[in-house]
Amino acid sequence: MATIPSLVIPHIIDQHAEEAAFLWLLRSRAIHAPHYSLKDLAKLDNRVEAHIDGLRIAGDYGWDVSIANLEAAKEAGEAFVAGILALEGNHIERINAVYQIVETTPALVNGLVSAFGWVEPPLLQGKVNGLLVSQSPLWRRVGIAVCAIHRVNPGKFLEQAIIDADVELRTRALRAAGELVRVDLKPIILDQVNDSNPTISFWAAWTAVLLGDRGRALQSLQNHVLQASGFTIKALHIVCRVLEPQQVRELLKVLVTSDTKLREAIIGIGVSGDPLYMPWLIKQMAIPELAKVAGEAFSFISGVDIAYDGLEGEMPANFTAGPTEEPDDENVAMEPDEDLPCPNSALMERWWQQNQQHFKANNRYLLGKSIDTVQCQAVLKTGKQRQRQAAALELALMQATAPLFETRAIGKNQQRLL
After folding, report:
1. Which DSSP state fits 312?
2. CA 159 – CA 150 distance, rounded (Å)
3. How far is the CA of 28 from the CAs of 31, 33, 175, 239, in angstroms?
4. Where in the sequence is the domain holding 201, given as residue range(s)?
């Protein structure tokens, strides 16, 4: 342990390390949360940065606390904190210390990759190339992910990774090709859209459609929707934006008429942006299990803010969708709609009756306005995170040469780009 400088208060530095790791966990949820705006994300990032800054100021002691926490906890949040200090400090032995722990616990990769995304690009020079030329698929995967986050083209390393035998490396490379608009790799990617591995098949098809394919890749995504491959929702987010309106209606009809796929149908309707389905969505709001997601789909199309506009209701007192406090309850998964407001179906119906004249069936809407580049840019600036992700996808599908906007990046960096 390093000598503690006289101005450093150990328990305060310990708190900085713990809070930074905890706030990273909050952030990892916030980037996909339905109630976080870009402004909210930037505020959370400022809190993270304040604690990281406290560790920077503490010098060697800040590093010692961070690496000790990572060694003890082996959690992604601690990998994020120690990773930032190691990468910024440019001490090879500290970087290797983090790498060794991550290598023995691959579940920490997300935290380390996030640290790379946090550090300013000039401080990463020479470090990412070492990952890309590694013999280890794990480190090549990290290198590809870092390039994708910073929207830097890794060149030949991406092409090599897309045909690698390691499934996780190939998966990340396929996704990165879409994020970075590597149109030159489209033939190689198309060869994999019908791969026997559903993960490879999905990401190959996802990327190929982003790169402009409207043939077998799009058909493959439709298969993922209908066959419930585990990528149904992600596939819906593409196919319901790309298919012709009549094809979308046919696909949604299949989902709507299936008792086990109503949730997917509701999400697909929100993605489709077609107000034709608004009366049906309002009916689903009377079903506790579907009420919140139906309200979100309605908001995606109409732009109404259920909580802010006074259209909120209450879930039944005896309704439980997520984990309970009962010790014998084996349901430990988080309720997927936890952060969504519950709509009052009667108030929502009244709102629709008063405003439906502003919407035309078979037209696509995002937050109350027809989908175009101007509206998508506006949503990227002021929408909530899920809405912003939708806008980013819309823009990428409209502009085949533009990289997918990174809605997970540091808030202040996104604000600067916008």
Report:
1. B
2. 18
3. 6, 9, 19, 26
4. 187-243
